[in-house]
Amino acid sequence: MKFLAILTAGLAALTLAACASTNRPEPMTNGHFIDWQGASLHVREWGEGRPLLLIHGASGNSGDLEISLVPALEDQFRVVAYDRPGLGRSRGRPAGAGTLAGQAEAALAVIEAEGLEKPVVVGHSFGGSVALRLALDHPEAISGLVLISAPSHEWPGGIAWYYHWSAAPLIGPVFNRTAVPLVAPRQLESGMQSVFSPQEPPQNYIERAGIRQLLRPGAFAANSDDMVGLKAELIEQSSRYRRMDMPVAILHGDADDTVSHSLHAERMAEEIPDSRLSILPGMGHMPHHFRQALIKEHIEAVYRDAGD
């Protein structure tokens, strides 16, 4: 027990500087906050026109969408993006926020607070899973979906061990405040290379997208909480896809090693009645950084199909 106490004290001392740097907020740009069940959701807005809601993926924040999609969309649409609960600059984590149902309620709160009238919702990766749940639970609130590299169904295997450690009630807080600030910063670059593969990440991506915000203990815990229940929730909600009644565009790279196009995109296209599928040859998990014009075309097509 004495050794454990000394070890814990040593780890805490070693991580003081790391924690200080990862807790420092990113520079504020055009954001504001809305209240959702006692939490603060960071919301950002660009442009004018028909409304779009952008939902970012796991381990990220709205900065990823700002540097990828917003420049291609803000001249034609009113674009709103937000940091999902506990991530980016959002603070607070209400009970149930880690479930897809809870995430969909947060998205609905943004739609209502910002006065978005039946937006098209664009979701990347985990954000696509949230968009699907929003369409299932609140179809009246949106016009349709554009899903990019989105998990939608069960997959073989599980998730990385550190998600379970981070989300565990007892060990999680210690893990997030000691191991994460020490080890995770060294893994960011290789992690970004992996998620973008076979493409190269944009120059200075980690800084420009504010990815280091993930290293805050609260943000890392929130991200892990999102991930640990995802597979079981997708198994449940996938049984409802055949009842969806709105246009859905599905875009997925055939070189995506993070989310399989055959397990997810192709199955969605078979099950969602009013869907169109675009498989992108040679593209990895991050097509929104490379195929903006195509994504914009799909947004316009969804609006046309919705009659808006």
Unreliable parts: 1-28
Order of helices and strands: HHEEEHHEHEHEHHHHHHEHEH
- Main-sheet strand order equals 1-2-4-3-5-6-7-8
CATH fold annotation of the domain at 30-157 and 230-306: Rossmann fold
Q: Helix share of residues?
A: 40-55%
Q: Kindly estimate the percentage of residues that lie in beta strands according to DSSP.
A: 15-25%
Distance between the termini: 66 Å
Mean pLDDT: 92
Instruction: Give me the number of helical elements.
Output: 14
Silhouette? globular
Radius of gyration of CA atoms, rounded to a whole number:
19 Å
User: What class do helices, strands and sheet pairing give?
Assistant: alpha/beta
Strand tally: 8
At the first level of CATH, the class of the domain at 30-157 and 230-306 is Alpha Beta
Largest sheet geometry: 8 strands, mixed
**CATH homologous group name of the domain at 30-157 and 230-306:** Alpha/Beta hydrolase fold, catalytic domain
Q: What does the oligomeric state look like here?
A: single chain
